[in-house]
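Many introductory courses stop at the sequence. We go one step further.
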Amino acid sequence: MMCAVFIPNYAFALGASRAEIGSIGFAYGMAFFISSYIFGRAADIRDRRLFLNIGLLCSAITFFLQILATSSLSLLLVRALVGFSFGIFFSPLIAYTHEIGGKMGEFSSYGALGWAFGGILAGAIAQIGEAITKHELLPYWSVFALSSLFFLISFYLSLRLPKVEMIKVEVPLFPVEIIRRNLWVYISAFLRHTGAFAVWIIFPLYLAELGANKFWIGFMYFANAFTQFLVMRRLDYRDEIKLIRLGLVISSLVFFAYTLARVYYHIIPIQFFLALSFSCLHVGCLIYLTERNTEKATSVGILNSTWSISMAVGPLIGGALSQLYGFHASMYFASLLTLVALMISLRFSSE
């Protein structure tokens, strides 16, 4: 999350246009899609810890490589490597957690806590770096270096994880039955996240236009993620289908509410509702998939793949819309697309 906060600003500092920033997001998302699909399936066949170790080590390397980007093209290539590395361990980690008896809400809450501190740390470090140096890129490099260090610590911790007995299942290369069984969940999540990433790719630039400095940009992400940490822990025993629907309703309202802000601090209360919406949707999807599918890593991996396709498609659309019609166009698009996702969930979840 430390890196995600400032990638649009970093790309802009390297000379990228809004459309090119969208292309950088597309490269990251597509690489994450390919990786999540491959390693989600593989983690149902082999020891999940292997993919945790490899993914975290690769992430430590690729997140540091962002410092070496000198143009929008080189940043695009590095972000593709980052997305691929991230996808190696993401689904296996969720499946491993379920295997050892962990609750999806509590697990997700700690991820959100990491996002929260990542956001506030990124904002603080970049703001301090800007104050003590005139080098435009040094504040971002500091963020990338610390991010890489955290991945190294995570890699060390992953080496010490206990081995657990897992049910190994044979999963076809293209698991049609798993997709059919959970199709409405995947489509609903895909549409909502496509809209969301159409907003996130320009969100830091939008905040800067509203008057936010680097610290306040980081704080906006902190407010969202820390609230997720508080909320997700309380969702483990709720009706997962109702959680998904509630997440979609609130998401649509949040994306529209962004367009009403006139200064950056108007965004702060909206971030708390954003946290509630994502918490409900994310935990609801994870509970639904891990409870109803024997192929846990594969089913969650497909969810992550739909998420990553959203990471690819959303930024392209968001970058293009904001380039042509301004920031608000991306937010209107996200709100409407999420409403479509809600209609699909209402229609097909009962089946």
